[in-house]
Amino acid sequence: MEGNPSSKIAGSGTRHLRGAQRAEEVSPAQVLEVTVVLKPLDGRAHSYDDFTAIHEHNHPGVRQRLSPRQMQVLYDPGDAQLQLVRHFASTHQLNVVEESRMRHDVVLSGTVGAFNRAFRIHLHHYAHDGGRYRAHDEPVHLPQELASAVIAVHGLEDVPLHRFHAASGSPSISPPVTVAELAAYYGFPDAKTVGHRIALIEFGGGYHKADLEQFARGAGISLPTISAVSVKGSDGKRGKNSPLSAKKTAAIATAWKTAPSFAGLFKEFGADLTQFMATFEVTMDVELSAAFGAGAAVDVIFAPIGADGWRRAIYAALGAPVGGGTSHRKRPTVLAISWGDSEANFGTASLKTINDALFAAQRMGVVVCCSSGDRGTSNTYATQNTTGCESINTCFPASSPAVVACGGTTLNRQPAAPGFAETAWKEAFFQSMLASGGGMSGYFERPAFQSEISASAVHGTWLAPGNGSAFKGRWLPDLAANAAFSSGVAIRIGGVELPGGGTSASAPLVAALLLRVSAAVGHPLAGLTSWLYSHAHRLPCTDVSVGDNDVCRGSAPFYHAGPGWDACTGWGSPNGAKLIAALTASLPTASASAA
Length: 595
Fold this sequence. Notes:
With 595 residues, this protein is of the alpha+beta class. A hairpin with a 4-residue loop joins strand 4 and strand 5. Helix 14 packs across helix 16. The longest helix is centred in the middle third of the chain and has 21 residues. The protein is globular.
C-alpha cells in the first residue's frame, strides 16, 4: 500500500483562527493519538430522512431507540476497512490503540514525525490572541484505497472550537427571580426522575463542591449524584475538573459585582479572568441542572479541545469508551451543551463528523440541547466592536438539525398580575451588547420540518464553500428560555452570588425541562425538534414576539422577534405541562403506528 497513489481527504486542511501566526514546528518526538473516521457500510447510518421527514410516525414516542449493540451493527465500518487502517498503520510505524464499530473509527498512536510522513503534512504550532494550537496547512493524504473509506482524520490539530456562552451582570428585577418561580413559569412537572441522567459537555474550567453545596442549601434542594468524567485528548492529556482556585474565584467574583469595565478586570486579574469565565460556565451548568433536574444524576464530561475533542466528548456522554477502557455509564436522557463556535470556524469536515455524532445521540434516544450563542447574528467576540461586526454566522452545534437549538429571553415582572412577560434577550455586558443567537445555517440544508418557514437570511450570512446565494439552510433557534442575567437565578461561585445568564443558562434549563417531561410521559423525546414544527404542536410554547438580536448597534443586519417562529426565540419558551398534554394527545395509537 505504501507505494500506491495517494488521494487528498476533502476538507482536511486547517481553517486557522483570525490573526494566527505560524511558530515553530511541533517536536517530531511528540506522541499523538489520531482518529481515523471511517464510512459505515450501511448507508442508512448517515441518512437523516427518518429524523427530518414529517409523517404520522414523527412522534418521539414511536421512534426506535437503538441500543449500543444495534449502533455497532448500524455504524460498523466492516472488517475490510478496519484491516486497511491496520495495514496502513503497520507500514508507517503507527500503532492501533483502539477500534470502535459504534463510533466507526480507529485510533492510531505514534510520533509527530511518523504522522507527518504517513499523511504528507508538516505540523506546526500557531500563535493567536488566545494562546497556541497545533495544526497543518497541507491536506491529509492517504493511499487511494484507504482514502475512499475515510470520512475525516481528527487529532492532528487541536484548534480551539469552543466559546462559553455564559454571562453575568447586575440583576435588575426586584425581588430576584428564584428557582421555584422559574419552575412554575415554565410548567416544570413534578416527575419521578430516578434512573434519569443529564449529561453536560465542558471544555475547560470546573466547579468547587463547596459552591454546589451552598447553592443547593440556598435553593432548598438536595444535590443529585454529580460525576466528573475525564475524556482523553489526542495529545494524551485528559480533560478534568479544573476550576480556578477558590481564593482567586472569590476575588474575581467579588470584584465583578462593582467593576466598571471588563478591561479593568482583565488588567487586574489577567489570564485568571478567562479561567474564571470557564469556571463560571461549568458551575452554572451544574447548578442549574441540579436545581431543575429534580434529582436526576448529572454527568459532567470534561473534554479536550479541538474537533476530535468534540467528537470524543459526545460519544463519552453516550457511554461509549473513548481513549481506552470500558465505559459503565448509562446513557443520559438529555445532553446539554453550552459551548459552541461559528460554523465558519469549524470547517466542513469537522461540521460533518461532529454532526454525525449528534445524530448518533438522537438514534440512541438522547435529546441534545445546545445554546444558540450570545452575540446575535455576529456569533463571535473576535469580530465584535463598538462600531460594527465583521461577519454573520450561526453557532454550531446549535445549527445541527439533530439538536434543540436554545435561544434566550428576558423575563419581566408584570405589575398588574403575577407572573412574567418575556421578550427576546438583549442587554448590555460592560461596554458591549449580548443577545440571543439566531439565523440561518450556512452549511446544513434546511430540513423538511422547517420547510414552511418563509424567513430570509440577512445579508452577509456565511455560506460554506459550494453553497451559493440560493442555498436554504437550517434555521435556529427552535426554543428559548431565560438567558438574561437581569432576571437570572443567583449562581454560587467562589462563595459569592452572581446572576447567571447567557444562552448557557437557557440550554440546561430547557434540557432539564425536557428530562422531566420525558419522565412524565414515559418515553424518550429524541426527534422532538421536528415534532415541534408540525402545526398541531405549537401550543406547548409561549410565543415571544417583542425584541431583536442586534448587538452591532445597527451596523449589521439582525433579526426581529415576531408572531410565530422567529430567528431570535424560535417558537418561544416551552411550557412543560402543555408539552406533556400535547405529546400525550398526539401519540399515535398502536394500530396507527403499525400502518
